[in-house]
Amino acid sequence: MIVARTRAELAAARAQLPDPVGAVFTMGGLHDGHTALLRAARRECASVVGTLFVNPIQFEIEQDAATYPGDEAADLRRFEAEGADVVFVPPAHEIYGPEFATQVCVPTLSGVLEGASRPGHFDGVATVVVLLLNLTRPERTYLGQKDWQQTRVIRQVVQDLALGVAVRVVGTVRSDDGLALGTRNVRLSVEGREAARAIHRALAAGAGAWRRGERGADRLERTMRRKLEAEPGVTVDYAVARNPFTLEELSPQAGAAVLLVAAWVDGVRLIDNFVLGDGLVDIDPAPLLADAAAETGSGPPTPA
Predict the structure, then answer these.
(1) How far is 71 from 88, CA to CA, in rounded Å?
(2) 204: which residues sit within 8 A by CB, 6+ positions away?
């Protein structure tokens, strides 16, 4: 596995890779959700390129980027174990030079939900993803369902700018208690982790109501909020039912929906979602993680 730290090193390594290339962009703190992305890329592509880059322009507060959880050595070991051919680990100045002045923005998708709570976040995400796609030149890139709004933003950018990359969404991977795997989960206390389980319970309750025929967004949202507000350790930012493609208000005639929750637990912001409808998530992570579980004799994390 080649570790590239400059654009020139990445270009030289990329030139040697057989196509098709799959890209998995990360900010570090790799867990089994990232493993599922890497295995999806490995199964579908001849080569895999990963990145480790904490993108400073998607954080409102500079200190949040500086303290983002991660262990470069451990992350590189996981990349190597999963068969990555190249991992790009650039310093910020290698990505954003002193005269960098470009921003990519998708206003219709970026200004709501996470974008409303974290102004500028998705502009930073879209900008760095376009940069990384141009630098790595993959045929496919792999994203996790847990960041559903992000998947919609990136799909729109790829489509609008004719980037010629297939965006593949891999389902959410969960711990046995239902909590979606996330890098920031390590910051939860034992009590906080217990409280965070309410997020999954809320989504499951909303999904249950949907499957029983409920199509009113207000009723679905009240169902989720009741579960969340019953847990005193959870502070709700939003719990909504939306159109899974546009993130606009859900029509009563909708054949598909996404339930999205964002909440604070132990000072940690957690997000999660359930996607309700066929064909919206491209890849089931369960088979991807089953092989390792069979080797170790342990059960795999639970997919969404």
Answers:
(1) 15
(2) 178, 274
Is residue 23 classed as helix, strand or coil in its secondary structure? Answer: strand
Confidence at residue 123, expressed as pLDDT on a 0 to 100 scale: 97
How many other CB atoms are found less than 10 A from the CB of residue 52? Answer: 21
Q: How many C-beta atoms surround the C-beta of residue 238 within 10 A?
A: 18
Closest CA relative to residue 221, chosen from 240, 236, 202: 240
pLDDT tens track for 184-198: 999 999 999 999 999
**What residues contact 53, with CB distance under 8 A and at least 6 apart?**
25, 26, 27, 88, 89, 90, 95, 128, 132
pLDDT in tens, 3-61: 999 999 999 999 999 999 999 999 999 999 999 999 999 999 999 999 999 999 999 87
Tell which residue, 233, 240, 231, 232, has the closest CA to residue 261: 240
Determine how many CB atoms are found less than 10 A away from the CB of residue 119.
11
Cβ atoms 87, 77 nearer than 8 A: no
Asked whether 57 and 196 are in contact (CB, 8 A), the reply is no
Cβ-based neighbours of 39, under 8 Å, separated by 6 or more: 82, 288, 289
pTM: 0.94
Q: Mind listing the pLDDT tens digit for each residue in 218-262? A: 999 999 999 999 999 999 999 999 999 999 999 999 999 999 999
Residue 34 annotated as catalytic: yes
Please identify which of the residues 31, 34, 93, 200 carries the catalytic annotation.
34
